[in-house]
Amino acid sequence: MFIFFPQPFFHFFRFIMASNQQASGVSPKKTGPAAFFRRLFGLIRGRKGDNETYTKGPIAGTMLRTALVMLPGTLTISGYNLVDAYFVGRLDGDAPMAAIGLTAPLVMICGCFFHGLSAGVMTTTAQSLGGKRRWRAEQLVSTGLFLITLVSLSFAIIGPLVTRAVYRNVMHASPEATRLATAYMDIWFWACVSSALGMSGNNLLVTANDSKMASATMVLGLASNAFLDPVYMFQKEVCGIPLGFGLGVVGAAWATVTAQVIGTTPVLCILWKKHHLIRFRAIRFAKLASLWKRIVSFAIPACLGSLMLPIGQFIMTWITSHFGDVVIGAITAAQRVQVIAFFFPMSLGVSLMPMIGQNYGARLYSRINGCRRFAMRFAFFYLMTMSVIFFLFAPQIADKFLADPDKVEMRAVMTFALRILPWGFAFLEVHRYSGFFFTGCGRPLAAAMLNVMRILGFLVPLSLLVLLFFRLTGNEDTALTLLLSTQMGSDVLAGTIAMILARRLTRRFPADGLSETFSGKRRMFD
After folding, report:
1. CB within 10 Å: which end of the chain, N or C, has fewer?
2. C-alpha torsion sign, points 291, 354, 458, 328
3. Predicted confidence (pLDDT) per residue in 25-40, tens digit
4. What is the mean pLDDT of the segment spanning 461-488?
5. Which of 131, 67, 55 lies closest to 378, judged by CA?
6. 3-state secondary structure of 522
7. How many Å apart are CA 434 and CA 216, to the nearest integer?
């Protein structure tokens, strides 16, 4: 299997094996295939007590080490979209890129349900591990993944029907872009269970302080997607023999779902065999309902908060569709390129939720406050630097990702977007981190309200006013400038407010070891 890995990814896996030789019992001097697989077995088997790092290790050091390990894996969080955008941008015409833009809101809506359920499982598991209740963590993981599977299968049945209704009656894109987007979503829905389980499984690996294997399996999925995209999308003849399937946008869907299956399978095996967090045991319905109720108590607010993102994206796509396929494609490309700036802050945030949850379960409130100070300061200064870089090199980035010589106008719009939107990056990430603190500390509804404030309080009303201005005046250039400025300004306002509220939350905790109470009730996991 490893023979077909691109060389950099093979060396990444070898680095992971070498860094875990103590766990596998293999001498550093031993090399060769046999030693390699013994190290792999030892890595999967793992060591006991790893999860205590979040509650005992140095805050900055633990977060930075986890971020560095997860950096290759974090690439995959948005890497699928980035790879798709890169290859779809090389297809003829504007319709393929516009079709990918049309799929984004629906994929995000489904992903929000999966994210909410994953957050419910991850948060309750982290608090149980922090409170030394491993038996409860095993039950929560096993029943939580079963619940996620059932929800995914229901989406596979309902999703294709919803897709056709939405694209036919709501969107204003061209018929060709709509046809391609519908074909893409039909394939994606039937395989969404792999995406859901992969997302949840990797979050649980990080919660168990196994970020190296989480990163490795995520890289495996992205490497598979990067290899399969050109195979499925294009077709070339070599010595008279056709190579590739030439499916275009539909090929991007097949490549994505195949890669997700490849990346998800080892994740579930590691949770089962190494960490023993998946148990195949009969359980009474009353106990199952009790565990699901606990997970859903976190999942519903997390879903609500997460749903604000695709709702906002859907409305913004609908507003942008009034400007035509060129603007849709340009802004879609800009948004997918911008994720490059968030790779390292997102890696830092991967460890943030389990670290908060475990310290909250262990009643180590001072560590939670320390996490907030370090994480938010780092994200703010890092992303402000990235904003300057995007502003300066916007034309070169647009030329790279929209290489077709005929897409002159689309490149101009993308360049313009890359010089406005990045100034809200730092505030957007601070806003996201603030939600982690509220969720990890047992206040998921407050975290959801932060997203409601940003989307329904600022972004949507102001953007609708811009659309009204465009319809009344017909001035496309001014309206587009206002639309991009509105999105950036909404991020700044929401991030500032969220930062103040998170600081207020963490500074009001009692001394370490004491039982926190709020609203006259005991903590959820006491």
Report:
1. N
2. negative
3. 444 445 555 564 555 4
4. 88
5. 67
6. strand
7. 28
Q: Which residue has the higher pLDDT, 31 or 272?
A: 272
Which structure tokens are listed for 493? 């306002």
Let me know: does 98 contact 177? Beta carbons within 8 Å: yes
CA gap 455, 497 in Å, rounded: 13
Whether the Cβ atoms of residue 376 and residue 428 lie closer than 8 Å to each other: no
What pLDDT, on the 0 to 100 scale, is given for residue 222?
87
Tracing tokens 């306002």 back to the chain, one arrives at 493
Which has the higher per-residue pLDDT, 120 or 171? Answer: 120
* CA separation for the pair 119, 442 (Å, rounded): 12
DSSP states of 275-320 as a string? S---------HHHHHHHHHHHHHHHHHHHHHHHHHHHHHHHHHHHH
* Residue carrying structure tokens 């939405």: 166
**Cα distance between residue 372 and residue 352, in whole Å:** 9
Which residue, 427, 421, 424, is CA-closest to 499? Answer: 427
Which residue, chain included where needed, has tokens 């600022």?
A: 458
SS3 521: strand
- The sign one gets for the Cα dihedral 38, 13, 125, 296 is negative
- A 10 A CB-CB count for 295 gives 26
Q: How far apart (Å, rounded) are the C-alpha atoms in residues 21 and 156?
A: 42
CA atoms within 13 A on the CB side of 410: 25
**Tell me, what's the pLDDT at 401?**
77
DSSP-based helix, strand, coil % in the chain, nearest 5: 80, 0, 15
Q: What is the pLDDT of residues 398-453, one digit of tens each?
A: 888 776 777 788 888 888 889 999 999 999 999 999 999 998 888 888 988 998 99
Q: Give the pLDDT band of residue 238 (cuts 50, 70, 90).
A: low
In this structure, what are the phi and psi dihedrals at residue 48, rounded to the nearest 5 degrees?
-85, 150
- Span between the terminal Cα atoms of the chain, in Å: 47
| Cα 221 to Cα 309: distance, rounded to the nearest angstrom | 25
Residue 243 host element (H or E): strand 241-243
Beta strands 241-243; 517-518: pairing state: unpaired
Hey, what amino acid is at 466? V
Please choose, from the candidates 327, 323, 317, 256, the residue with its C-alpha nearest in 3D space to the C-alpha of residue 88: 256
Dihedral pair phi/psi, residue 43, rounded to 5°: -65, -40
Cβ contact 246:235 at 8 Å = yes
The counts of H helices and E strands in the chain are 22, 4
Please tell me the distance from the alpha carbon of residue 156 to that of residue 177, in angstroms, as a whole number.
22
Q: What region does 474 belong to: left with phi over 0, alpha with psi -120 to 50, or beta?
A: left
Residue 153 makes CB contacts below 8 A (sequence gap 6+) with 193
The type of residue at 497 is: I
* Dist CA 41 CA 34 (whole Å): 11
